[in-house]
Amino acid sequence: MKILVCITHVPDTTAKISFTDDNTKFNSDGVQYIIGPYDDYALARAVELKEASGGTVTVLNVGTSETEPTIRKALAIGADDAIRIDAEPTDSYFVAEQIANHAKDAGYDLIMMGRESIDFNGGMVHGMVGELLGLPAISPVMKLDIEGQTAKLAREIEGGKEYLELDLPFIAGCQEPIAEWKIPNMRGIMSARSKKLEVLAPSDASEAVKLQQYELPPAKGDVKMIDADNVGELVKLLKNEAKVI
Amino acid sequence: MDFGLNENQEMIAQMVRDFGAKEITPHRDQWDEEQHFPIDVMKKLGGLGLMGVLVPQEYGGSGFGYEEYVTAILELAKVDPSIGLSMAAHNSLCTGHILQFANDEQKKRWLPKLATAEWIGAWGLTEPNTGSDAGNMKTTAVQDGDYWVINGAKNWITHGKSGDVAVVIVRTGETGDSHGMTAFVVERGTEGFKGGRKENKLGMRLSETAEMIFEDCRVHKDNMLGNVGEGFIQSMKVLDGGRISIAALSLGIAEGAYEAALAYSKERHQFNQPISSFQGIAFKLADMATELEGAKLLTFQAADLKNKGKSVNKESAMAKYYASEVAVKNSVEAVQIFGGYGYTKDYPVEKYYRDSKLCTIGEGTSEIQKLVISRAILKE
Ligand SMILES: Cc1cc2nc3c(=O)[nH]c(=O)nc-3n(C[C@H](O)[C@H](O)[C@H](O)COP(=O)(O)OP(=O)(O)OC[C@H]3O[C@@H](n4cnc5c(N)ncnc54)[C@H](O)[C@@H]3O)c2cc1C
Fold this sequence. Notes:
The complex is a heterodimer.
Chain A: E1 2-6, E2 9-11, E3 19-20, E4 25-26, E5 33-35, H1 37-53, E6 56-62, H2 68-77, E7 81-85, H3 92-103, E8 110-114, H4 125-133, E9 137-147, E10 150-157, E11 160-167, E12 171-174, H5 186-192, E13 197-200, H6 231-240
Helix pairs in contact in A: 2-5, 3-4
Chain B: H1 7-23, H2 25-34, H3 39-47, H4 66-79, H5 81-101, H6 104-115, E1 121-124, E2 140-144, E3 147-158, E4 165-171, E5 181-187, E6 193-198, E7 209-220, E8 224-225, H7 231-267, E9 269-270, E10 273-274, H8 279-307, H9 313-338, H10 349-356, H11 366-379
Parallel strand pairs in B: 1-4
Antiparallel strand pairs in B: 2-3, 3-7, 4-5, 5-8, 6-7, 9-10
The complex binds flavin-adenine dinucleotide (FAD).
């Protein structure tokens, strides 16, 4: 089985967020980058599927050269080779087009990625890739097993779960508990350096959305402590100051 | 010259942090309290390739160099210094001695088990009456046909009870003769070899420190490392490398304590301002940060020389001496910056404070490092 896992290169979940250039650029100074946590689940499950029934796992990232350490980490975790499409990932549609252009003739049996990135959290790329390739796209997939050419999966829906069966190939947007994150080992780290990381030029694609400006949420105000016996005061403050009741 | 971490080191650091957060941190305080040595954690470290970092892949190891090794210990020590100590002792001392001085057959026999942590290793040089003066050891081995019969005791041995295999250095010649000692590998289960008392320690409480007792313990001559009379010289060379790992351990403590103190100093307010705004605290942080960087440079210098196969006798002693003193100092200052909270087990600096002191003692005290350094520079 030939699996493609698309990964994002995103700020660590604990990174301090700030902007430069009149709030038009993300300030990456001192920011640690990681594989998108949802993509990391997809990757972990892909590696498990490969280990169980053979095949290959290719990771793909649309990004500039600074994403390579993140791609190497995916190789250390167990992907066999990697592709970096050398372009700034400007918006979901642009990224989806790059992925679809690469994947359309590459013969993947399964394309996996996170349910969403954790920088812009659009959650749209899997759906768009499915549309562009004319394949089903399902998200968020929490359980995925493959038997022959058939996939059995569980998807989270409002208030419950849905169990589905469909034929390969398709696109899966993944989330926990599809697998446990894998910690690479020393051998993986050593072998990551010698695995193939191919850099491809981006295909022509339009930038559908232009980013105007970022805005941080307002800073949190001070906390007011109110004595547990003083419920009247609490109600007064909620009504007059916080204006929530 | 490149002073940054390479890509491997970045990945290793991340891997150790992820592993520590999942497997160690949630249990750390309880294990510290109970002085529990978590063997299963050591086995999992083996699964990650951290128990044979320097062992070539042909012997089942990871085949990395000293830079990556230092990074792994440093990061592990930030999570828990005592697991860092156990990892360092296993890699540098027991495994390191075999790696450096065993013949190929012996390497094939023991290294794959050690590098994967199927077996935990111990290394016995110190005795109750001979620590710094290890060359005066009293434990003896006497030849009897194809066997050597060992009698005596080693103490302060990391993994002395739980280790599956130990390298021991014992007297085979005259007292006072540096060629009067020989190294043997003794496997657990060998008749006459047993673990003794486990020490109840101030810090490093997750790392087992115990006695090893030898009573007419017969060890086959195939278990001898190198030749008769080479054991003490070998162990001094093992310690030259081992000291880099104690320097790395010290860096982890120094960095962990510093980072905790830095963060706390910005959050804690007194007199309506963060305590970091007081020069008395800010200057402490400046000293901690500067000395930490200095210790790092010394340690990575020694690691670099070791990788290049050069002598590191003086440089590893300098790194170990300086980094260990910085670890103690930074953790003392971190407790001071945390004030009363630093004196409790609710914050990590209390543990760094207790754990740090081992670094100026184990694998040669600070005084002994100064002896090594001064001898080297006076000879130059
Ligand atoms: C947690 C822990 C783990 C250990 N693990 C191991 C292990 O795995 N294997 C092993 O073999 N050993 C191990 N050791 C032993 C350790 O290496 C010794 O404790 C250390 O070498 C010091 O020896 P000592 O304790 O006998 O102190 P001593 O040698 O008695 O020293 C006492 C004091 O005298 C000073 N002193 C001694 N000689 C001189 C001198 N010539 N000039 C100036 N000052 C001097 C020392 O610096 C020290 O301050 C471990 C120790 C600890 C605490």
